[in-house]
Amino acid sequence: MRLNLFLLIIIAGVSVFGSIIPQGEDPAFYRQSYGPLRAAVINYLQMSDIFHSWWFLVLCFFLTASILACSANRLLPLWRLTMSFRQQYGEDFYTGSSIRDQSYSPKSAGEAANILMAGLRKRHYRVFRENRQEGFYLYADRGRFGSFGSMLVHLSLVLIVTGALYGRMEGFKGYVSIPEGGLSEIQKAGFSLQLDSFRIDYYGDYTPKQYYSDLKVIDQGREVIKKVISVNDPLTYKGVTFYQTSFGWVIDGVVISGGKETKIDLMEREAVSLGGGLSIKIMFFPDFYINESGHPGTKSPLPNNPRVFYVVYQGSRAMTYNLASLAEPVQIGDAMTLTFSGYRRYTGLQFASDPGIPAVYLGSALMILGLFLNFYVIPRRIWFMVNNETSGCRILAAGSSPRFQARLEEEIGVLAAEAAKPPA
Amino acid sequence: MISHWENNLFIMAVIVYLAAMTLYFISVALRREKAGRLAFFVTLGAFALHTAAMAVRTVAAGRLPFSNMYEFTSLFAWGIALIFLYVERRFAIRVLGAIITPLIFGLIGYASVLPGDIKPLMPALQSYWLQIHVITAILAYGAFGISFGLGVLYLVREKMETAGKAGGGLYSLLPGLKVLDELNYGSITFAFPFMTLVLITGAIWAERAWGTYWSWDPKETWALITWIIYAVYLHARFTYGWKGHRAAWLSVIGFLAVLFTYFGVNLLLSGLHSYV
Ligand code: HEM
Predict the structure, then answer these.
(1) The domain containing residue B32 runs over which residues?
(2) Same domain (yes/no): B108, B144
(3) CA nearest to B76, candidates B17, B8, B145, B170
(4) Which of A399, B138, B196, B251 could form a Cys-Cys staple with B79, CB 3.0–4.6 A?
């Protein structure tokens, strides 16, 4: 039984390690920061990726198993306790209960029972009454579903952990960049995505306010969805969600070599082959100027004065580099000219498919519901035995509640006092 | 730019919190109940100024003040003050102020040295989920702060009893151990569902913004550790009857984890939450 506390503490302790040791770096990093010996330990115990290590999985498994076992154990008794109302008990039950009350009323048992019932109903109790020879039994309860709160919390936790593991096994992640007007096939997803346009809204000082990609999903040649996505507002199709992540410039280039004209797309900082063992990388300055220290820069992100900085490589060696205006042909070697004919934006989209998410979110909602039931719906049960005496009647009361017993005791006292009050 | 109005209100709030703290100290040092009563109203005044400063900021920024360390630290102090004022009003535990006002003062003092410029909201922070995330965090952390104060009072009173210093003086200002323990439990049961919501709304926000609802970055991990500590508190209490001494310690440790999640992670560990 102490196992669950132990597990919780272990998981917290492991998490501390996981937050202190940088996760997911490559082995060289650990050798450098921790020395060879400790790096070997880190490697051996998979501490460079604790939360995906086999032993963390084992811990999660024990946690869910322990919760399931515990819940299974408690479900039946709890169900019985909650549903077995109207239990009739003898006097011993009343005198032995930890919350109890005894009083005498000048009223008849029937009258007193009616007053008790009215009082209970006013306090939102569900009341059952049983008539007997000597008088009446009353049984009342409220908030009985509160007892299921903690069970719901625990089962929702199992749902969340299972959903998370399932999502990790079955899901995938990726990244795609698409130039304006371009179409990209998302292989893992089995459909294509087209970017019609990309737009950035700026604040007054050119810090970005929001990025918008106007996207179309093309599935088997047909356009199925059109949506403008932005940060915090992704697009989902067939379980794959696309998130606005980054952006940049693409320059349209025209290469003329040996009388042949070829069009190429040049993404910033990405090497593109020109043929003949040559390749090129570019950087775009949309609003070109030379800053105070004599370096090229851009005054604003708007294309007011566009320039392209390019480097041509032969193999891995930089052969030539320069700054070019648009539409100005650039001579490369003896037999090739390149013209930067225009510019467009591209959008960078992170995509992910996580079939575990519905379970995780459902689990989260149920957990909140369970916590609410557990802490705010307090089960209370009250029994009254009202017996006729030679004059008036005797009222025996008992109560039970897992929390706030004093409050229940007080409530029972008030109820009984109402029924015992002599007529004015 | 931080507006003059906001700045003046904020500085006044800091000064008045300082005055409240001093009054609480006087009340404890001289065992004056009256000074404690006055301190309550001074705290209320400081809280009103603090609220006004944040309202001015909200209007100036055109959004709720949620987006950087300065704003959130100020809100953290505000949440603790809010819950403290409620608990103080409802249960009249004056000495609690002598622990809580230094905490508030420390937080708001720290906020005042952070850069307070109103920055436009970057795209990732434009989310309703984030707003719920922050609001629930203020309530949860505020109540955990109060639980910390009650835990400390419990340990102080207990220490006095075992040291044979019970009776008179400071001791007479302290409520009974049972009252402290139950109120502490009450604050934690209030805070726990909100803390759960903090984790959930944070996860949903991360999923909407970046595509991963949980990435084990240090801030997330420490929020989870905090949550587990309080879950341990609840279990130990419910199933093993850990009340009193050990429960008081757990509530102190829990709040240290809150503070670490808040400040330690930013200062000592690195991660996604680098802007808050
Ligand atoms: C190994 C895992 C766990 C086991 C075996 C376990 C077991 C238990 C048991 C037996 C109870 C008493 C419930 C009752 O009789 O009503 C309980 C209460 C509770 N548990 Fe867990 N638990 C586990 C993990 C968790 C976790 C991770 C949470 C986090 C949300 C949690 C939240 C709660 C809550 C909120 C209560 C109610 C406490 C109270 O009413 O004061 N449990 N748990």
Answers:
(1) 1-121
(2) no
(3) B145
(4) B138
**Cα–Cα separations (whole angstroms), residue B76 to B38, B96, B133, B138:** 24, 18, 13, 6
Is the CB of A380 within 6 Å of ligand 1? no
Nearest residue in B to A210, CA atom: B123
Strand-pair category, A393-400 with A272-275: unpaired
Distance B88 CA to ligand 1 centre (A): 30
> How many CB pairs (< 8 A) connect A and B?
101
Distance CA A44, CA A116 (A): 69
Kind and range of the H or E run holding A179? strand A172-179
Shortest CA distance to A250 belongs to which of A182, A302, A201, A304? A182
Which ipTM score applies to this complex? 0.90
When divided into structural domains, chain B yields a total of 2
Cα–Cα separations (whole angstroms), residue B171 to A219, B149, B159, B177: 75, 16, 10, 11
Q: Which of B239, B151, B135 is nearest to B188 (CA)?
A: B151
Q: Are A300 and A287 in contact (CB under 8 A)?
A: yes
- Residue A173 forms beta bridges with which residues? A352
Q: Amino acid identity, residue A315? A: G
User: Å from B228 to nearest chain A CA?
Assistant: 7
Which domain-ending residue is among B86, B101, B121? B121
Residues of chain A contacting residue B269, judged by C-beta atoms under 8 Å apart: 19-20
CA B13 vs. chain centroid, Å, equals 17
- Ramachandran bin of B232, using left for φ above 0, alpha for ψ from -120 to 50, beta for the remaining angles: alpha
B157 Cα: distance to centroid of ligand 1 (angstroms)? 30
Quick check: helix, strand or coil at residue A351?
strand
Instruction: Look at chain A and report how many structural domains it folds into.
Output: 3
Dump pLDDT digits (tens) for A219-262: 998 999 999 999 989 999 999 999 999 898 999 989 888 888 88
Q: Do A16 and B209 touch (CB under 8 A)?
A: no
Residues A40 and A106 in one domain: no
A366 burial type by CB count under 10 A (0-12 exposed, 13-18 middle, 19+ buried)? middle
- Write out the two tokens for B124: 């990732």
Same domain, A181 and A165: no
Q: Which residues of A touch B183 (CB under 8 A)?
A: none
C-alpha distances (whole Å) from B155 to each of A87, A367, B233 are 44, 33, 16
Amino acid symbol at B20: A
Chain-centre distance of CA A266, in angstroms?
38
Give the helix/strand (H/E) hosting A284. strand A278-285
Going residue by residue through chain B, which has 276 residues, state the pLDDT in tens, using 9 for 90 and above: 567 888 889 999 999 999 999 999 998 888 877 888 899 999 999 999 999 999 999 998 888 888 888 999 999 999 999 999 999 999 888 889 999 999 999 999 999 888 878 888 888 888 889 999 999 999 999 999 999 999 999 999 988 888 877 666 677 788 888 889 999 999 999 999 999 999 999 999 999 988 889 988 888 999 999 999 999 999 998 888 888 889 999 999 999 999 999 888 877 775 444 444
**Are residues B161 and B147 part of one domain?**
yes
| Residue A156 beta carbon below 6 angstroms from any ligand 1 atom | no
One-letter amino acid for residue A132 of the chain? R
